[in-house]
């Protein structure tokens, strides 16, 4: 692959869709091609963010209000932009993020019912002119994602959201599909029921297309 200016790629989807696996695989493929790529995540991509992540995902914090949840995610993103994303892109690094601002719109907008326009306004203020070059949305039925979560080793940090009912996760999935419809130039929907290897090859092929367009 030829050398290109830094790109910002995000992975999104409901819990259990397989996005984290694909984000790690893409970073590995890019580094093997000689392209400096950094894997990061939200929430928790910075030291301060790791503390915020513990608050957000701790099952003991089940009484956290919708707006408190939203502002904690936004605080994490603000720090993430300042410490990791903006400076790394400036240095020429490719950034691969496991979740970014689409997750806030899907989870807090559609899932919690907070105003989408309000969330979009705040995200725009935090991110300024930095936007993902491409977003891979791994989409699968909620029941399949739940089965996958139940099979994997229990991640204690994820329990608070995994305790939400099916209706909540259906709303989140609907939100992601709405986002994909609104931002067709950026969001690529992937059938997350395909094999890990098939998805990896598809993601890499789309990434190469992005490289060739630069």
Largest sheet strand order: 2-3-1-4-5
Overall pLDDT: 92
The quaternary structure here is single chain
CATH class (first level) name: Alpha Beta
Question: How large is the count of helical segments?
Answer: 9
Count the beta strands. 5
Shape: globular
- Rg, please? 16 Å
Description of the molecule:
There is one protein chain. With 214 residues, the protein is α/β, with parallel strands linked by helices. It has a single domain (8-213), classed as P-loop containing nucleotide triphosphate hydrolases (Rossmann fold), CATH 3.40.50. Helix content is 57%, strand content 12%. It has nine helices and five strands, in the order βαβααβααβαααβα. It has helices at 19-32, 47-57, 66-90, 101-111, 116-127, 142-151, 159-162, 166-182, 196-213, and strands at residues 8-12, 37-41, 94-98, 134-139, 187-191. It has a five-stranded parallel sheet with strand order 2-3-1-4-5, with helices on both faces. Helix 1 (19-32) crosses helix 9. The longest helix is centred in the middle third of the chain and has 25 residues, at 66-90. The chain is globular. The protein starts with 7 loop residues before the first strand and ends with a helix. The model has no long low-confidence stretch (mean pLDDT 92).
């Amino acid at each position: 692959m030829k050398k290109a200016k830094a790109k910002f790629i995000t992975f999104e989807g409901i819990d259990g869709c397989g996005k984290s696996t694909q984000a790690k695989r893409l970073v590995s493929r890019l580094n093997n091609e000689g392209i400096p790529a950094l894997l990061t995540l939200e929430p928790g991509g910075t030291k301060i963010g790791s503390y915020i992540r513990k608050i957000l995902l701790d099952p003991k914090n089940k009484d956290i209000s919708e707006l408190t949840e939203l502002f904690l995610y936004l605080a994490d993103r603000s720090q993430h932009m300042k410490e990791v994303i903006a400076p790394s892109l400036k240095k020429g690094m490719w950034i691969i993020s496991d979740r970014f601002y689409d997750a806030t719109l899907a989870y807090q907008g559609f899932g919690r019912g907070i105003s989408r326009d309000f969330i979009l306004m705040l995200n725009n203020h935090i991110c300024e002119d930095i936007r993902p070059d491409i977003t891979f949305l791994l989409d699968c039925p909620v029941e399949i994602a739940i089965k996958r979560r139940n099979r994997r080793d229990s991640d204690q940090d994820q329990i608070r959201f995994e305790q939400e009912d099916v209706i909540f996760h259906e709303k989140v999935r609907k939100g992601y599909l709405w986002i994909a419809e609104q931002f067709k130039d950026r969001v690529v929907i992937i059938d997350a029921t395909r094999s890990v290897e098939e998805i990896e090859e598809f993601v890499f092929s789309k990434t190469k297309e992005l490289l060739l367009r630069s």
